[in-house]
Design brief:
The protein is of the alpha+beta class. It is about 25% helix and about 15% strand. Strand 5 (about 115) and strand 6 (about 120-125) form a beta hairpin. It is flat, with a radius of gyration of 35 Å.
């Protein structure tokens, strides 16, 4: 079975020119990145004069050596720390678990009447 080829990143500008991004990336792979990160576009660490100190592969290997290994058998509920609740706090929680008392609706007994004037504005009577 034939494998699907990766699509090349070729874009057309507003002026009709074609730009091949894959080619641009390959050409500028060793160019130092802009900023103070001291890396090139590929990700290699650079020293004085733009010389490569550590290659990208070494940097990535070092990063993943320090990363903890995830065990698939552990469940999320096992990894989440449950806070300890004291007896006093439990009482407070029980008070709040009860059905809330509905708030009384306050309605004013006085109904103010509004009247529309000639301009369409509402004013008190």
């Amino acid at each position: 079975m034939a494998m699907k080829q990766k699509g090349r990143k070729i874009y057309r500008t507003a002026q009709g020119k074609q730009i091949d991004l894959d080619l641009l990336i390959k050409k500028n792979e060793m160019t130092p990145a802009v900023g103070n990160a001291r890396v090139n576009a590929r990700g290699d660490e650079l020293g004085p004069g733009g010389k490569i100190i550590r290659k990208r592969e070494e940097v990535v290997q070092e990063y993943y050596k320090g990363a903890p290994v995830v065990n698939e058998s552990t469940k999320r509920s096992d990894t989440v720390a449950q806070p300890e609740v004291t007896a006093e706090e439990a009482k407070i929680f029980e008070e709040f678990d009860e059905e809330p008392v509905p708030a009384k609706k306050t309605t004013s007994t006085k109904k103010e009447e509004w009247v529309e004037d000639d301009d369409g504005n509402f004013i008190k009577k």
